[in-house]
Amino acid sequence: MDCVTTLKLLVIGESGVGKSSIILAFTTGDYNASFPATIGVDYKCKVMDVNGLKVKLGIWDTAGQERYRTLTNSFYRYSNVCYIVCLVVGNKIDKPRVVPREAGQAFAMKHRMLFIESSAKTQEGINLAFEELVQKIIETPGLWESKGSSSNIRVSNEDGRQQETSCYDYTCTI
Known about the structure:
Elements: E1 5-11, H1 19-28, E2 41-50, E3 53-62, H2 69-77, E4 87-90, H3 101-110, E5 114-117, H4 126-139, E6 151-156, E7 162-167, E8 169-173
Parallel strand pairs: 1-3, 1-8, 4-5
Antiparallel strand pairs: 2-3, 6-7
């Protein structure tokens, strides 16, 4: 079965929250306790099956440090489409709890976001986080076209002028 679509996922968050560890756990099943801080951006790819559809995920891991903010912003700027899914991932649940689960759920519900807890170290919740994200994209009508066909969309520039563009990839934020 060929891939139905490619999704470009941009993983963002503060420095040290475990973005790289989550991506490593998801793409390889590995965990590295002494994972170095991401400098700039890193890229991983994984193909997954969601409800019988094969989806290729291009996962961009961004640096959380403030000094890389400009570089990270350029990834938003040059995306064909920016589809923002707000998924709150309570990571590092293998460590003593700092935030109660109920508080995370309440925050996510108040802001109409998905909520999942995970641990890159134990793999708990890692696949579920990405599966939920892709499932929401697939369930949303008009977000992607099947069989690799492109769709023409109208994009407004900062000055308000519209341009037509053709795109195959979609950007998601986790």
